[in-house]
Amino acid sequence: MNLELLINQKPYQQDIEPRLLLIDFLRDYANLTGTKWGCGSGSCGTCTVLVDGKTTKSCQMLAVEAEGCAITTIEGLASTTGLHPVQTAFWENFAVQNGFSTPGTIMSVVELLQNNPNPTEDDIKQWLQGNLSRETGYEQVVKAVKEAAERLTDQHSNGQESASQNVGQSLKTRKTEALLTGDAKFIADMTLPGMAHAAILQSPHAHALIKSIDTSEAEAMPGVIRVFTAKDTEQVMPMPVIWVPPYTESHFLSHPSGIVPGSHRVFATDKVRFAGDQLAAVVAETRQQAYDALAKIKVDYEALPVVLDPEEALKEGAPLLHDSVPNNRMLNAVFGDKAAVEQAISEADVVVEQRIYNQRMMHNTLEVRGVLGNFDTHTNQYTLWTNTQIPYPHRLLISLYVLGIPYNSLRVVVPAIGESNGCKGNLYPDTPLVLWMAKQVGRPVKWVDTRVGFSQNTAQSRDQVQYGTIAGTRDGKITALRCRAFTNVGAYPVINAPGQPLPLIGKSIPGAYVIPHASYEVDVVYTNKVPAAPMRGSGRAEAIFFIERMIEMFARKLNMDPAEVRRINMVQPDQFPFDNGLGWTYDSGDYENLLNLALEKADYANLADMKAEASLRGKWLGLGIGSYVVVAGVGNSAKMGGEGLLSGTWGSSYIHVAPSGEVAITTGAQPHGQSQDTTFAQIAAQELQIPVDYITLKHSDTSNPLYYGQASYGSRSLSVEGAAVQKGCQAIIKKAREYAAYLFKMPLELIEYKDGKVIGIPAPEQAVMSLQQVALMLWFGWDLPEGMDPGLEATAYFDPKNFNFPYGTHIAIVEIDQETYQVDLKKYIAANDFGVVVNPGVVDGQTYGNITLGIGQALSEEAHYDPETGLVLTNDLDSYAIPRASWLPPIELYRTETPSPSNPLGAKGAGDVSNPPVAPAIVNAICDALSEFDVQHIDMPVTPEKLWTILQDKQSVTL
Amino acid sequence: MIGIQLTYKAPETLKEALDLVGREGHQILTADQSLISDLKKGVPSLHTLVSLRKIPGLSSINIDNGELRIGASASYNSLLTHEALNQYPALAQALATIPDPHLRHHSTFGGALSHGGRIHAPVLAALMALDASVVVLTRDNDTRLPIHYFSQNGNRVLLPQGGLITMIVLPEPAAKSSAYLTVNQLAGRQANHGIAISLTQSGDTLDQIRLILAGFTEQPIRLKNIEEKLAGSSLTPDSIKSAADQLGQDELPIHNDRIPEGYQRHLAGVLLQRALKSLTKQTVS
Ligand SMILES: Cc1cc2nc3c(=O)[nH]c(=O)nc-3n(C[C@H](O)[C@H](O)[C@H](O)COP(=O)(O)OP(=O)(O)OC[C@H]3O[C@@H](n4cnc5c(N)ncnc54)[C@H](O)[C@@H]3O)c2cc1C
Ligand code: FES
Asked: Where does the record place the FAD-binding PCMH-type domain (chain B) (predicted)?
């Protein structure tokens, strides 16, 4: 059909299929890729454009229905005079992190402000109901919208910009403009000449024998280039596992390398073990053709019994997933002295026991995963573009352990990348598969997942059953803590599968408290669920939920104030370094101080009055505390090796000072929304005492001049990779000073580095050179001291002696409707200490994101499976409910800065550390609200129907 | 991506459209959201979409003879910005439960009736409480069906084959008061549970009452027995309570199995009592 329309005031005309959606027309025909595809079902809003001025999700409109319309996309917003005021306000207010949801949100806001020039906070949150954010949450977005309204009505006065851009300043984030204008290219936005498209077939059975696969009909479909199944990929090795705990027996799968154990193959061979296991792929000329053909592949399965629960899976006679793994047990591990804990429990005045289920979560990033692979026959070089958190490990693991190709033949590039929340920190079988297929078909091949595909193939997280016991004295002192846990890792081990259930949870369960006897025993178990992996807050979230619920129950059993019980047991400032008894040595802090601060801000002293007032309105009000201290800043390489991680975890940087004076820093970090381009430049600017604008950050490409990058995860970037940047800058200064000492003929001690210059102290007017002059002279290399090489560059590594331990206390205040049991979050207070903070705007953004995710876990998110078939039922963003703007209460952030001795910056992690206290604070608040009914515990997500079920027994329902 | 091949037709007159909609595999498209979502999941029996976008007049909203006439292709937003809406509080409040501007712009009243779906439940319930009627055109005639036709005991009743909805008509509000109440659900995975109510009173006596629950059944359901029991009486705390107690399986067959039935029945009772209390307060005062 012929389609004519205006896009950004430019006429377009095209012959199209009637089934083409507007989003696909915009992206594939008009090449306007600023409009993003997130869910395809009208839920997420990343595809929002304006059609005749109206906010429209372009995935929900046929292109033909836009005939004759005027469309505005994100690309049409900025003008020759600059960004649109909404774009500017988003930038100024740190409302952009990875930027995937930014274009769609901005487009909605443009219409809002046209209709309503002065929206209230509530108006904004309601209007944004259709735009999800899985990164920063909504707080900074709402602020940005308010400011945009002022800018559009000329009420905005530009604030005083601070002269300093150094550490401690909220410098506006860099490399953000392309995210605001839609110019940034994410994986789905990339094309290469001659590129073909892949679709991957996933098993609809959670456990079945593969009897036969018939691809003949698919092969005959229009546009099909090749169809691949397991018989084609025998030479491709299984995925490796790179975390093998040395202190316990573990059962992974075999791997031909003999060096590491293995996991699943790129295609299931004899049987499928989870609904989503992949078993064939089509490469075709277009994506539509690939998916059309995929639907024609016929597989004959023989269904087998399914097991989804870890405790069931351990029982004799349970369906067995892997012949080589008895009882489906990957491993059993114990931390702490179990016997001593038993003893302490038996001697305690008070003992509380509780089963807690930390539910299975889905990362559900709005950007799904994708891969573009290419093999150049002339150079024998492979290039892999993919949205991963870990490009260097991809290079190493794929070349060495999966494809068996030279490390030096593979380059991995990360384009602009959307949220990860941890799920993009794995190696998935689709990734080497696409690269391998590109070589087979002799053309670049791109695969971008679907939302249903993502729900079945992308790692999920948490999913641990915990049997807890807490014991102590009558006056509130905890004497023992025991956790017996069962972790459901799904059907196969991911690369670092043991990391989360073992040290990250096991060593973290004492939380912020001195607990003389603590133990943790876990069985890590295979089931027919999607493989599980870390998720933002990982391990620490399960541990902190556990301890913060247990201490709450303990306090209630004693009839003591839960805040006071925390105080009594908290690690005190004079106890650092503090060995928590299970393996972590806490670095620094004043835990009680933040507890008290949060309580004061929450008006804790007046809680009884608040409850009474709410009760008059038919509400039960509750206040919940979540105190935390969590491990961050992975980590000391030897310590991580001791845990079983077959990799170093040092930070690395390469600093290059060009003869022009420009500084290029290559970092081992892999940004995916944490703004390292900004914060690392601030560190370097402070260290080198030069303007930030002289500094460029490089990352996301393994061909950058860096030995290896250990990437970004577990809140390590700033405190480890950032410290390596600082160290590299110090090496530059050292060389500059040594060179100056030689040139000025002065002893080194008399050469000062100040304001970006080397200065001979005895003659500061004459003996002075800028860093740029030093770089130029060293580039000439005409006159060098003995033993000095030309050039001004440095490679630096930083391997911290210890982790760092951010901490704090969060408080949630909730109200529960006494008739409907709806839970309403009224207020949220977060008091955190992330050590020395480089950029408060950035860190606040990370914190809001962590809180939003925690709210989701507490109140709505859970992966649901069909108990019979093992299919993921929550396979879109309608059935899996991510927090939306209107759910969020006013959030108040407070911060103290206690430097960490673990790194010279004094920084602690911030990326995911403030997630763990959120869910327990909310569930504690809910249990507090229901204290008159003696509700000990409620598993997450806490829904009204769960509350009704529990309270039915406990109250006579009077309406 | 839509996996099935489609033909698209956009007739310019109602006559041409009627000629097409009676045919096998043809389906009307009013830009509404539910159909597009279904197409992505695959509707095997469908091969041709008949778009109404080029037929003039179907998006209009006007008042005629005291009746509010809403074109089948009129969007929720166009009604939201129409001054007549404040005569119909139940409908205004039901529309307010759909804050997403995209849904407001692209959900249509015709779509709500032809395709149904969760997001439309509040609006349909309000229309039912307001005794709307639906103008359905077939090749032979032009009938007005009461809106209640579309819900039989909470099940969706499809449009007569070959029929095309052109308009929804709301009778003059007269002295009727109405409301739509919902519960403030955080979790998006839940159906939009709510209740639409309208009533007329003479003094303290209820003349006529409509009670429609949304979100519990496939299509909003009218609580006929309770309506009959309450009509002609005056509301007291006791009669309100006993109305709620009547919400058994016969009166309310629960279709939504994602949430425990007992809770839903409880919630329905709460909504019913809140609705009755809220309106009687308004009318009595
Ligand atoms: C193998 C693997 C394991 C993972 N494990 C986990 C896990 O255990 N838990 C989890 O939740 N997620 C995990 N993820 C995902 C991870 O959470 C996110 O990638 C995380 O947000 C990374 O943050 P970061 O390392 O950049 O954090 P950080 O360095 O803490 O912070 C993010 C950004 O905030 C700024 N910032 C941080 N600290 C400061 C400071 N003190 N001063 C100023 N600015 C600061 C910097 O710009 C920094 O780049 C994992 C991923 C992988 C691949
Ligand atoms: S992609 Fe259109 S709403 Fe999510």
From this structure: 1-175
